[in-house]
C-alpha cells in the first residue's frame, strides 16, 4: 500500500510542477500600460504597444496636491486610478489622496471592486466602516503614521478631528476600484422625489433640498 502511494506521488508531483510552470498560470508579460483611447473592457484596458512605452508611463505626479476643499464636505481628493495613471493597468493596485480641512468629511461611500488600505500622512481623523453582514460599525481614531484596512464593498467614512488639515493616502487592491457615494446615490439622480421620499422615509421638502445640493432632478 505504501509503495503504491509512493509511486502515485512520483507521477503527481511532476504534473503539478508542469501546472505551476504553465504559461496560462504565470505572468506572461512584464506590464500592460493601458491604451486609454481604445476604451475599457471587462478584462481591463488593452495594452499599449510595448515599443511605444516610455518611463513616463510608470510615473504620476497627480497625488502631489489635491483640489481645494470643496463644499459641502470640505475635502479635496485626487486619485491615481487607471483612467488617470495608465501604468497601473492590470497590476491590481491604485491610490488616492484626501485632504480634509478642519471639520472636513469623506462621506459614507464604498468601493465595489477593491479593498482600501488607508495611511494617515498628517493630522488626526476618525475612520470607520459598517459591516454588510452584521450591520456593525468598526471605527478608530487615527493619527499620523496609522493604518486602517477597509474591506471591499463595505460602506466607510473619515472625518477630521483636529484643528488642522488631515491628510490620508489610500491604496487599493484594484487599478479601478470604483466608488459610490451614498449622498450622490440617493440625491444625485433623476429618481422622482416622491419615490426617494418613500425609500428613505425623508419628507419631500428635504429630498428636494438634497437633490438641489447634490445635482439631482425630479
Automatic annotation (TrEMBL):
Q: List the disulfide bonds.
A: 32-47
* Record-linked CDD domains: cupin_OxOx
Main subcellular localisation: secreted
Q: What InterPro entries would the database entry show?
A: Cupin_1, Germin, Germin_Mn-BS, RmlC-like_jellyroll, RmlC_Cupin_sf
Tell me where in or outside the cell this protein is found.
Answer: Secreted, Extracellular space, Apoplast
Kindly state which keywords UniProt assigns to this record, in alphabetical order.
Answer: Apoplast, Disulfide bond, Manganese, Metal-binding, Secreted, Signal
- Cupin type-1 domain location: 61-208
Instruction: Offer one Pfam family short name for this entry.
Output: Cupin_1
One CC-aspect GO term: apoplast
> Which GO-annotated molecular functions does the record name?
manganese ion binding
Give the matching Gene3D superfamilies. Answer: Jelly Rolls
Ligand binding (oxalate):
111, 116
Q: Which residues take part in binding Mn(2+)?
A: 109, 111, 116, 156
Top-level taxon of the source organism: Eukaryota
Segment forming the signal sequence: 1-26
Q: Which PANTHER family match?
A: GERMIN-LIKE PROTEIN SUBFAMILY 3 MEMBER 3 (PTHR31238)
Q: Which family does it belong to?
A: Belongs to the germin family.
Tell me, what does this protein do in biology?
May play a role in plant defense. Probably has no oxalate oxidase activity even if the active site is conserved.
Q: How does it assemble?
A: Oligomer (believed to be a pentamer but probably hexamer).
Per its record, how is this protein called by name? Germin-like protein
- The record lists the organism as Digitaria exilis
Amino acid at each position: 500500500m505504501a509503495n503504491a502511494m509512493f509511486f502515485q506521488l512520483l507521477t503527481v508531483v511532476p504534473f503539478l510542477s508542469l501546472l505551476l510552470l504553465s504559461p496560462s498560470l504565470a505572468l506572461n508579460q512584464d506590464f500592460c500600460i493601458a491604451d486609454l483611447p481604445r476604451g475599457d473592457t471587462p478584462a481591463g484596458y488593452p495594452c499599449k504597444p510595448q515599443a511605444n512605452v516610455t518611463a513616463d508611463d510608470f510615473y504620476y505626479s497627480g497625488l502631489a496636491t489635491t483640489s481645494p476643499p470643496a463644499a459641502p464636505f470640505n475635502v479635496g481628493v485626487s486619485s491615481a486610478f487607471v483612467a488617470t495613471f495608465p501604468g497601473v493597468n492590470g497590476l491590481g493596485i491604485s491610490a488616492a489622496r484626501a485632504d480634509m480641512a478642519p471639520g472636513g468629511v469623506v462621506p459614507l461611500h464604498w468601493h465595489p471592486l477593491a479593498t482600501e488600505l488607508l495611511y494617515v500622512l498628517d493630522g488626526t481623523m476618525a475612520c470607520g466602516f459598517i459591516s454588510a453582514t452584521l450591520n456593525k460599525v468598526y471605527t478608530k481614531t487615527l493619527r499620523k503614521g496609522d493604518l486602517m484596512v477597509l474591506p471591499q464593498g463595505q460602506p466607510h467614512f473619515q472625518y477630521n478631528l483636529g484643528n488642522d488639515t488631515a491628510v490620508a493616502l489610500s491604496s487599493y487592491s484594484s487599478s479601478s476600484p470604483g466608488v459610490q457615494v451614498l449622498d450622490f446615490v440617493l440625491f444625485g439622480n433623476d429618481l422622482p422625489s416622491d419615490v426617494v421620499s418613500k425609500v428613505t422615509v425623508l419628507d419631500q421638502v428635504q429630498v428636494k433640498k438634497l437633490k438641489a445640493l447634490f445635482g439631482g432632478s425630479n
